[in-house]
Fold histidine kinase.
Amino acid sequence: MSEQQQNMFSILLVDDKAENLVSLEHMLEADNRVFFRAGSGNEALKIALKNSDIGLVMLDVQMPDMDGYEVARLLQSNPKTKHISIIFVTAINKDEQNVLRGFEEGAVDYLPKPLDVNVTRAKVNVFEKLYFYQQNLRQAMADKEKVNKQLERFMYVVAHDLKSPLSGAISLLTLINEDERIQQAPDLKEYMGIVLGATNHLTEMITSMLDYTRQSDISHTIEPVDVQTLITELSRLLFPPAHIRITTEGVLPVLQTTRLKLQQVFQNLISNAIKYNDKKEGSIIIGGTDKGEFYEFYVKDNGPGIEKRDADRIFKLFERVDNNAKEEGTGIGLNIFKLLVEEQGGKIWVESSPGEGSTFYFQWRHS
């Protein structure tokens, strides 16, 4: 569809009197409007089913054979036409009974005959704006779904490609760990245990990622997740340098949620805070507050911070900020974080002071 076609607003005029159709079209004509005329209810239904881009129906109530109420009911009962806004144009007195019946059948407004030109134009202008708002919203949702699918495919490919070499590395590490020289050296034995534990945990995460992408259209298992335990495990398995301290504030909750998704969010934020920290004594603090429907978490660091102009841009796909950190990111992680949070109705934001650090906030639904 061309840009010009996308900006066109189609209106279906329905009246059994041809002169009324001509008069109404003349009253509403504009450069970006297309009009369809129907002289009966049956003709109106055929036109509406044939033209999926109709945004508004101006529907006369009093017509022979099939009145406007019946036409509205049939339009609303069909999935292909139920989204169309309907304005009843009627000479019937607007008493409470008739108005209620019209709204029950799907009308969104009434216009009494004889029509007031200014009022009619003003109301149609409102519904035209509403139509384009809805179109833009549908397009935004479609674009978001497309990005979600791309990310799921990307995650599947990465996870699949990592799993085979990691399995080989685990096998080799297991053989090395069984060597007598390792078994007889307590320090080396402990270090090998940590490495094997981390690699096995990473394998489980990759397997979970593969399961997630394979079952993206299936609801994921909801289970009790002890956030304090989750943070403790991540803090150990992310191997922060000795100069970076990870702590929690207050009592973190136990949530009924999908463990993998919440783990991905915290892992992304904590690993970024570790990666980009530029201080001799690094600090990462995790905490949260119960806000009723949502639990509001935060991950605070004392790293390089983020310029105000970059605060929104960092959450977009493939966007990166300029900083003096030696590590360079892909611009994917924070976008995945944003999608995971917004998927269950939460919000994300960041507060930051350049040179002093950043605090990332996100809302996570209790269940």
